[in-house]
Every structure is written in structure tokens, then in C-alpha cells.
Design a protein that fits this description.
With 254 residues, the chain is of the alpha/beta class. The chain is built from 9 helices and 7 strands; from the N terminus they run βαβαβαβααβαβαααβ.
Length: 254
């Protein structure tokens, strides 16, 4: 399919899953607003590479998504610079690990705020140029933790469950307004962060990365295979297709 002429805002897209999704959407022809943290020079290099590789417009805004004013600025900047918002990928998030009795109260609020972007942007999507043009897509990147739990991750699991619930509510409210809202719920994804975790585990256990890969996967999921950012990106592209126009309110394992 082609997304030529469409605009996608992808949060948390300077690395990992978000970058994989941004690359896939750019590969389908969409202009991209990147957002995230990282070294300014490295982000500019990524932005320029996407422009050159896919021949699309790519902008960057480093808005802090825990602040409402910066979220609003990000939306306005995307519309001003790229002409609208046709696709929102709500990917940014944070995670803090601790037992419930030791979990800092401020961390509970922080995790929820980081995953609240979709709630703040639904109305912006409705009133941007996508309404009535046949393409309006909100894709929330939740997690397997949006459907099941793990110990020591109370804020992350609560936020991801809440994001899946918000996806279903928004899907109902926007069902007949040309906007679909779905959640992708990845299991283990082989990102640079996970690769570093595997190296650390292997060093601590005196094993090799391949052994720790098998152990890590067996802890949480039946399939002993990692998902990749590219395959999640391919699912995002499909959810933007005409063939997916009646898929809404879904929480899709990947």
C-alpha cells in the first residue's frame, strides 16, 4: 500500500520500536514527525537518513510527553510543518521496576503520564485534516503487559492495561468518524536495549547470549522467538491500509 501524502506522528521514535515503525511508515510514503530523547547530533543524522532513504519529509520535535503544554506544541508543530496528522503512533513510554511495597508514589504517576499521549491527542486527530478523507489512524503501542502481568512492574502494567482500555473506548467514540484506534501488544522485541540486557545477563550468569535469549523468552512467552521493530512497523502499515479500515478497538499480540 502507499501512504503518499499522509503525515504520521510517531512518539518515542528515535530508537527501538518507534524508530522501526517510523521507518516502515516512511517506506510506505508517509511524511514523519519524529519525537523522543537522545543525542541531538545522532537524532539529526537519523532524521536526514530517513529523508534520503525514503524520499519523504521528516521533522523532529523533542517534546516531553509528560507535559501537556509540550504535547500541544508537538501537535501544532506537526500540523504547521507537515500539514496535518493522518496517523498517530502513541509509542513513547517509561518503565520502573520495584516491589509494590517499595514502589515510589511519584513513579506511579510518571508512568501513567508518559502513556497518556493518546488521550490528549484524540481530539486533535479528529479536527486535523484527516477527518472525512478516508484515513485517520491511531495506533497505541501497548505491550503484552497490557493483557498480562509481571511482578515488580505495577505502574507499567497498570499503564499498559489502561492504554488498552482507552483504545477500546476511543475506538467506539470514533468508529463512525473515519478514525480507527488499535493497540499493538508486543512481547519481547530485539532492540538495542534488550541486546544490552542479554549481554549483562550472560556476563552475570557466566553463560553466552544465545543461552540467555532462550531463558528470557521462556520466562514470558510460549514462542521462543523475538519480535523485531521492523515486523511491528509492518503491522502498523497494515493497520493504516484500506484493508484494515474496519479493524478498530483491537489489542493485537505481536
Amino acid at each position: 500500500m502507499t501512504l503518499e501524502g499522509k503525515v504520521a506522528l510517531v512518539t518515542g521514535s528515535t530508537s527501538g520500536i518507534g524508530l522501526g515503525i517510523a521507518r516502515s511508515l516512511a517506506g510506505a510514503g508517509a511524511s514523519i514527525m519524529m519525537n523522543g530523547f537522545g543525542d541531538a547530533d545522532e537524532i539529526e543524522t537519523l532524521r536526514a537518513q530517513l529523508c534520503e532513504e525514503f524520499g519523504v519529509s521528516v521533522a523532529f520535535d523533542g517534546a516531553d510527553l509528560s507535559r501537556r503544554d509540550e504535547v500541544s506544541r508537538l501537535v501544532g508543530e506537526t500540523i504547521d510543518v507537515l500539514g496535518g496528522i493522518d496517523v498517530l503512533v502513541n509509542n513513547a513510554g517509561i518503565q520502573f521496576v520495584a516491589p509494590i511495597e517499595e514502589f515510589p508514589e511519584e513513579r506511579l504517576g510518571g508512568d501513567h503520564r508518559a502513556q497518556s499521549l493518546g488521550r490528549l491527542l484524540f481530539d486533535e486527530i479528529r479536527y486535523s485534516r484527516n477527518e472525512g478523507q478516508g484515513l485517520g489512524r491511531v495506533i497505541n503501542v501497548a505491550s503484552a503487559h497490557g493483557l498480562v502481568a509481571s511482578p515488580y512492574k505495577v505502574a507499567y502494567v497498570a499503564a499498559k492495561h489502561g492504554l488498552v482500555g482507552a483504545t477500546k473506548v476511543a475506538a467506539l467514540e470514533l468508529a463512525n468518524q473515519g478514525v480507527t484506534v488499535n493497540a499493538i501488544c508486543p512481547g519481547w522485541v530485539l532492540t538495542p536495549l534488550v541486546e544490552r540486557q542479554l549481554l549483562d545477563r550472560a556476563e552475570q550468569a557466566g553463560t553466552v547470549v544465545e543461552v540467555e535469549m532462550e531463558r528470557l523468552l521462556a520466562e514470558k512467552q510460549p514462542m521462543s522467538k523475538f519480535t523485531t521493530p521492523e515486523s511491528i512497523g509492518a503491522m502498523a502499515v497494515f493497520l493504516c491500509s484500506d484493508e484494515a479500515e474496519t479493524i478498530t478497538g483491537a489489542a493485537l499480540f505481536h
